[in-house]
Write a structure and sequence with these properties.
eight-stranded mixed sheet; globular
């Protein structure tokens, strides 16, 4: 008989916590799903209107059914978490926020799944708090620096910037149409829901633009320090990623001593969404073996 995960929704799993990590004092929003001896934290990307739930809603149930507790953190400046202007490293800011959250929840060690900005934040957390990590899964992010093959900033990053400055349905569709390989799965309802999320927090939009003006390099290049991370790491990339090129994944593979790389064909920047079923099986196998 197959175990069935209990029904859950974004609203029923919604939680808030006040954190204090060094000088960082914020109210963070997160979703808390399932129970288990081991916890998986999911960190979302930097797109306007992003949230843990929006990024990973196709990936939660298999982990919960597999016996894991799943935490989806909304990074400072996104969704229902407090607004913030970041004039330094966004990766390290998010890592400190995550440290505050896992401390508040009494979690000694966590596995982390990071997508795009979430990948950068995962690496920053692993470097700052190596004793707090289990296994790592990075998709479409993890270190900065230029691509050897693709002009910078990439097509997708330019479209994100345009959407932050002018949040219209037209600009949203332009970004989302290169976000995934097959845009036919993107419905008008999905576009409208995402736009509503974006417009609900104009303070987040304005602060992101301010942050980028104060420090255009929000996500530093960690290549020279990757060798310090000894955790088992699964890298997952889309061959057609038009936001963070696939050679970034190769740089991570070269730098991380215990990494493996899986590349999806016909896949853009959102592997966990476009190839959810295969992705979920890979992650469960990776975490349990």
């Amino acid at each position: 008989m197959t175990a069935t995960a209990p029904a859950f929704t974004e609203a029923s799993t919604s939680r808030f916590v006040d954190i204090s990590e060094g000088e960082l004092k914020l109210r963070l929003h997160y979703n808390d799903v399932g129970q288990g001896a081991e916890t998986v934290v999911m960190l979302h990307g930097s797109g306007p209107g992003a949230s843990g739930w929006a990024n990973f809603h196709r990936n939660i149930e298999p982990l919960v059914t597999g016996g894991y507790r799943v935490i989806l953190m909304d990074c400072p400046g996104w969704s229902k978490s407090d607004p913030i202007v970041c004039d330094s490293s966004r990766s390290d800011l998010n890592a400190r926020a995550l440290k505050g959250l896992v401390d508040a929840l009494g979690l000694d060690r966590v596995h982390i799944i990071g997508n795009s900005m979430g990948g950068h934040s995962t690496v920053a957390f692993a470097l700052a708090y190596p004793e707090r990590i289990g296994k790592l899964i990075l998709m479409g992010g993890g270190t900065g620096g230029p691509s050897a093959f693709v002009p910078q900033p990439t097509e997708g990053i330019k479209l994100i910037g345009a959407l932050y400055r002018e949040p219209t349905i037209e600009n949203l569709k332009k970004m989302m149409n290169v976000f995934v390989f097959d845009a036919s799965s993107l419905t008008d309802e999905l576009f409208q829901t995402r736009l509503d999320n974006i417009l609900a927090r104009r303070d987040h939009l304005e602060n992101f633009v301010k942050s980028s003006t104060l420090n255009p390099k929000q996500f530093p290049d960690f290549s020279h320090r990757l060798h310090e991370i000894t955790a088992q790491t699964l890298l997952v990339w889309g061959r057609e990623d038009r936001f963070v090129p696939m050679d970034t994944g190769l740089r991570l593979l070269a730098g991380l001593p215990h990494a493996q790389l899986h590349v999806f064909n016909r896949c853009g920047h959102w592997a966990q969404w476009e190839h959810a079923e295969t992705f979920n099986r890979m992650v469960l196998d990776f975490l349990t073996h």
